[in-house]
Amino acid sequence: MFLKKLLNVPILRNILVFGYRVAIVFSEIGYKIKLSIKWLFTSRETTNFTYDLTELNKQYLALTISLITNKSQSEIFSYIKEIDSNNLLKKHIFNETKKSGESYKSDKIIYFGRRIGWYAIVRAIKPKIVVETGVDKGLGSCILISALMKNKAEGHSGYYYGTDINPKAGYLLTREYAQFGEILYGDSISSLKKFNKQIDVFINDSDHSSNYEYKEYLTIRSKLSSNAIILGDNSHCTTKLLEFSKKTNRKFLFFAEVPKNYWRTGAGIGFSYK
Length: 274
Hints:
The protein is α/β, with parallel strands linked by helices. The chain has ten helices and seven strands. The protein has two domains: 2-39; 43-273, 3-Layer(aba) Sandwich (Rossmann fold). Helix content is 48%, strand content 16%.
């Protein structure tokens, strides 16, 4: 009864409604604030943040890739579990990060996020040539090469090329992983113009300028194999892969990450395919 009387007073009603709206907002962001504070004291990362995906999100990813590759969802999900449980790769990343002197800004627990989708694509279609622009420390490189190594064990050879303008990029690409790939140092578009092999899987993850991204797609257009798949790491924030797909009569799908117990909103993968 008392509340009903308050609601009859316009100014008090507006205050109560505003307070209720504030409560709704904090019910949405309160958990993220808690995770943010925890991350500040438990993580050492400063860029290229890593995290796990929710189990449901992984199932959505498997279904998306199964549609793109015409493989069963169970097969694709088996590849996702395969990379998630690759302790040899995780040990390699941990050891090489420690050797590089970069461990002060890297976490001990290693997660792959959306890159498990990259891995599943390579395992599913068994490409001969994989190209990734923007190597950074080489986490994506090692994940992609891990897929190529598994493919080789099953009788399907493949090779990885990464591009990066930073001559120190790719410090994780060592030991057995270096036998399946190499890095082309210099401007990515310049490197792609000189590239003379047919590309089966292309991953854009270099300069995050939308114009530069589009130039990369135009540069590799004539170098793509007939069933090549392009993965766009910027597709959550630019429309360039979608535009390129429309222009070249390619299909396009987007997968959005849902990080598990993480403070930041995920990115995603744009898929351009025939």
